[in-house]
Amino acid sequence: MKKTKTSYLLRGTPSILLVLGAGFVMASSEDLREALGMGAAVLISMLLSSIVVSAIHNIIPAYAKIPAYVMIITGFVTLISMLMKAFFPEVANMLGVHLAALAVSAVIYRDAEEVADHNGEVKSIEVALVTGVFFTVIMVVCALIREVLGNATIWGQPIAFLQDYKISALAGAFGGYVVLAIVMAVINKITGLHHHLDENEEKEGN
Amino acid sequence: MTPEIILGIILTSILSGNYALIECLGTGAVIENERSTKRSLALGAGTTLVMLLATLITWPINKFVLGEKLEYLQIIAFVAVVLVISEAMHLVARKLLDNYCHSHFVKFAVNGAVLGLCIHNTEHGFLEAIITAAAVGIGFTLTMTLYGKLKDLAVDEDAIPASFRGLPIALLTAGMIALALLALKF
After folding, report:
1. What are the residue boundaries of the structural domains of chain A, listed by start?
2. B115 vs A21, A100, A185: nearest CB
3. ipTM > 0.85 for the complex
4. Residue whose C-alpha is closest to residue A71's, from A39, A104, A113
5. Residue ranges of the domains in chain B?
6. Which of A7, A60, B57, B129 could lock onto B121 through a cystine, CB 3.0 to 4.6 A?
């Protein structure tokens, strides 16, 4: 299969990425504003760290790669956290500790280690953009479902006719798991991802 | 601090305030866990030790060095401390940890649960922070072990709709456990 942007998202990558990023996806998909804030934070930190890692990976010795990459990502996450507190304090408050936890997120680290460390700037930027946009879309979709059905609000504004029908469980931790599972199953159904995974497993088995 | 408060902190951290399942910190490490019970327990013990040592160091750093003036350096300082502790543990017991972890221990130990715990603990007193660290570590270990054990159970794959196989059904299972733990919230 030709390795295009589409194939990157069809080769089982979403499942792996979503396992690694399940925590921040669920934690920041209670509210649409939160989801967009976290989406922007993931996209920007992944993009900037990919550019820096792909530019300097040759001069970092192998034994120092883990701490070096983690500190590069942490630097950018700190920067984003400060900017968010200054310009979007409400969103920063909503995200709380999860914004800081992005510094040690396996998704961003994986992108730095497996993509930026082995490729040039252009390829790294391309993959970081695709991954960042993918996470933002997933979080926005989950947030829309959870905010509208769980809280009967949208962008923090109450939806009058839904007030008596809200499903409070969707707004909590349980809702995060259920909604993400259903969204992932829909993606699998649409893209036929489970067929790709089955084929890959068969090949690996051989 | 009364024994009732200590018991409350321990039960909350392990059950209704479980970091991996309820607080969504370090969830990836739990969901992807396919290790045996022995390996899960050993790795959980390692992570608990990292949590305890990290709290022992980050709490005084936040109180006496960073304060309110240098609060913006909190994430960088805490990540650096967690990295140093994990690397030091890896140096001391490299073979043992890599054997249990199946990959680099530092990559596993530097996770959202450890960093989130250090940040949450700055709001508590020192003794409370230490007890919370130990209890959160135990809760993380138990969840990871339980989840690893669930993967061992024989499941009829055909009973699960094709698009729900893999991650979606794993997430639904975690959701059910989270719901059960939330029921213990008073």
Report:
1. 12-205
2. A100
3. yes
4. A104
5. 36-153, 159-186
6. B129
